[in-house]
TrEMBL record:
One of its GO terms (biological process) is regulation of gene expression. Its main location: cytoplasm. One of its GO terms (cellular component) is cytoplasm. A zinc finger (dksA C4-type) spans 108-132. Keywords: Coiled coil, Cytoplasm, Metal-binding, Zinc, Zinc-finger. Signal peptide: none annotated. Interacts directly with the RNA polymerase. Residues 30-100 form the DnaK suppressor protein DksA N-terminal domain. One of its GO terms (molecular function) is zinc ion binding. Pfam families: DksA_N, zf-dskA_traR. Transcription factor that acts by binding directly to the RNA polymerase (RNAP). Required for negative regulation of rRNA expression and positive regulation of several amino acid biosynthesis promoters. Also required for regulation of fis expression. Residues 104-137 form the Zinc finger DksA/TraR C4-type domain. This is RNA polymerase-binding transcription factor DksA.
Amino acid sequence: MPVAAQKTEAPKKFTPYEAAPGEEYMNEKQLEHFRQILLDWKQELMEEVDRTVRHLQEDANNYADPADRATQEEGFSLELRTRDRERKLLKKINETIEKIDEDDYGFCEACGVEIGIRRLEARPTATLCVDCKTLAELKEKQLGG
Ligand SMILES: [Zn+2]
């Protein structure tokens, strides 16, 4: 069954991978599955970026009144932040596709264990296993205090 996810945070739709018993983790088929998820996600994001840019251009021509312009500028900074987030995410997706190409995908960067198919489907750009991610977040909280 296709899984819906929040816009830009994760790919919208994919069919969960059914691994055969004893199937090797991150074999060609699995790598191909994730490559396809990432490519679809990238396509989605690029369309979103297009829309954001077009919206910014349209807005720029539409307001002459100063009060309108203030509202418009708020909208601008929001859209610019969105665009910035989209751009960073696109970069991350591209880096992840490179990792798949180099057959270096799906293992935790900190401890080397398998990140796991389900976790990667929810967050295909994940580079840490659940344990290391939790630990990293705890540390971040302590530092951010
Ligand atoms: Zn780990």
